[in-house]
Design a protein that fits this description.
mainly alpha, Arc Repressor Mutant, subunit A
């Protein structure tokens, strides 16, 4: 009789997700993952051809996690790009290793930064449309200007150089939006 599989793909991905969030994916090896999942390396390589293949599935999991994080984030501000900016910066603060995996590392498995950020819920498109309906003459240029500011702030939080609280961040984003609006 064949032996029953006890370690599933879901188990391996869950362990890899936890390790990536705690240590960064660069520290996930077959042996460390096996130890975390409570198995030998054999089930990992039964399911995955190699660690790169696992990395692709993990990346999709983290993209999905970010989408859920964004969907669950309070959207209280009416100024375009403020809610998205707050969420992005907070995600970097709350999940620095996962943020790095999604938005800083070069290997995005064929997805652009825009694709990841826009997600299945169309977050960026909604913000661009909101800017357009609010009178912004060039909402795509507005997105680029705001995005440089937002991404920079989020990356600064990875190094501990971003020390604005939420209210200060809101004020920064609102003031920047208004200043950029005048220049477009």
């Amino acid at each position: 009789m064949a032996r029953k599989e006890t370690i599933t793909k879901k188990d391996i991905l869950k362990a890899a997700f936890e390790m990536a969030g705690e240590e960064g994916f660069e520290h996930v090896t077959a042996r460390t993952l096996a130890a975390k999942a409570g198995c030998s390396t054999q089930p990992i390589f039964r399911i995955y051809k190699n660690m790169e293949e696992l990395g692709k599935d993990l990346f999709v999991e983290v993209v999905t996690y970010f989408g859920a994080y964004y969907d669950g984030f309070p959207h209280k501000n009416d100024t375009p790009f403020v809610n998205l900016g707050l969420c992005y910066i907070r995600f970097a603060q709350d999940n620095p290793k996962l943020f790095k995996l999604l938005f800083v590392d070069k290997n995005r498995h064929g997805k652009s930064l825009y694709d990841i950020l826009n997600g299945e819920n169309g977050a960026v498109v909604k913000e661009i449309n909101s800017a357009a309906s609010g009178g912004c003459k060039n909402p795509s240029a507005m997105f680029m200007k705001m995005w440089i500011l937002i991404h920079g702030a989020a990356c600064m939080s990875l190094t501990g150089d971003y020390d604005l609280n939420e209210n200060e961040t809101i004020a920064l984003l609102e003031e920047s939006y208004q200043a950029f609006l005048k220049s477009l």
